[in-house]
Amino acid sequence: MRFQFPCLTSIIDCFEIRIEHPKKLKAHAKTYSNYKKWTTAKYLIACHPSGGITFLSKGWGGRASDVHIVRQSGFLSSSYHQPGDQILADRGFTLGEDFAVLGTHLIMPAFTRGRKQLPGKDVEESRVKSNIRIHIVIGVLKGRFHILDGPIPMRLVKSQMDERQHRQEATIDKIVHVCAALVNMPSSVV
Known about the structure:
The chain has 190 residues and is of the alpha+beta class. It has helices at 25-31, 66-73, 96-101, 120-136, 139-144, 154-157, 171-184, and strands at residues 8-18, 32-33, 38-47, 53-56, 60-61, 86-88, 105-107, 159-162, 167-170. 33% of the residues lie in helices and 23% in strands. The strands form two sheets. Strands 1, 2, 3, 4, 5, 6 and 7 form a seven-stranded mixed beta sheet that branches. The protein has a two-stranded antiparallel sheet with strand order 8-9. α3 (96-101) links the parallel β6 and β7.
């Protein structure tokens, strides 16, 4: 992978965790995922090519778009990226211009918009890019921690005031962040 993408620093994707159906209609509308056909909490995750998780957003309602989450999560910040960095993402992350402002390059699989078929070279490159992304990003996190299988009870999804940190935070966000931290720990420690 280093040969193909020598400046690759992040592989990004969003993943969803099933949550109980909220009783309030407005909350249900914000959390319903057309992709999963269920109510979900959605997270942006970034992994280093070696597999370590380098960024994890707070949870968003399943209806939020990948683009919205990237823009609102703080990931589009010069503190996370340096000029020349490459970021690998799925085709839903139409953020090339946003990353270009930071001097970084967003790499996405080719897609057929406006064309009947991709040229053979583009098909192969897209397959390789997609396989790398899928292989690394989410499987480790969701595969190891079955608490993330859901559905998560609504009492853990609702934000509550954290008096020590003086901010609103949902218990589900704390759970997901602890799971991510454990993924990053060496197996001898865990």
